[in-house]
Amino acid sequence: MTLEGKRIVVTGATGQVAGPLAESLAAAGNEVIAAARFSDAAAKERLESAGVTCATVDLQNGDLSALPREGVDAVLNFAVSKTQRWDIDLRVTAEAPGDLMAWCRPERFLHCSTTGVYKPKGHEPITEKDALGDNHAVLMPTYSIAKIAAETVVRFASRQFGVPTTIARLNVPYGGPAGGWPLFHLLMMQGGMAIPVHADAPSTYCPIHQDDIDASVPALLDAASLDPTVVNWGGSEAVSVEEWCTYLGDLTGIEPTFETSADTLESVIVDTTKMASITGPTTVGWQDGFRRLVEAHDPSLLVG
Q1: What is the reported pTM?
Q2: Do the strands 204-205 and 239-240 form a parallel or antiparallel pair, or are they unpaired?
Q3: Which class does domain 7-171+209-233 fall in?
Q4: pLDDT tens digits, one per residue of 175-222
Q5: What would the CATH number be for the domain defined by 174-205+236-301?
């Protein structure tokens, strides 16, 4: 799918990943409709200044009246609720994607899930067929279960409404204005705070830069099917929290400290073989991406 001149609805558009993606798609000449509550006026203004049309919706109450009901080429669903209230988080995260598909009846649907749906597997790479589990229970009790429920709703709605769909399980996104988890770690380092890591060390993930996220969306949509395509969405390189914080320390001269904690996430190393067959490998190496992250946050911090 070539994403030029398309009509695209992006939900969760005030979030870390969907906001920059919406702006990128608008810059490529698409009609992008960003759907969110827009309680943050500055976020709405930023999107509009980038050529994105903002539509105020309420996924909790099912009010999608601001969205088009026809002529939608693709819906990119990044909406998620993290209130830790089961009624709200299941409604917004799990049920609302079905409402979106029924309302917009798009040509294609991309649902952003998470590798947080997987049962921990130590330091073995996780494939799309591996067991699911309550991965995030120690931090966000509703998150993993609501995300698993969302995938079930999306599978049903894809078949029920005849909308080819891809379910992409996102690992650790970073880059873009919000920075992501690695920037949070850098801020902790600046504040002299210890970085929590799991006892089953090292705590390893597959971070993916915003540029690679944006670049992979057309191919992920192209791979959509009525029996939804499920694919891990992560960087081609596995790297640990310990390793990337040490590298951030090398770049900034701020030495990280670590604290082993039971109240943190275990490693989630994903097998990206299927993703590479669809999108090709990611192109932003993690060290280059992390340097760019520091430069975007505060270039004066760079000493190495």
Answers
A1: 0.97
A2: antiparallel
A3: alpha beta
A4: 988 899 999 999 999 999 999 999 999 999 999 999 999 999 999 999
A5: 3.90.25.10
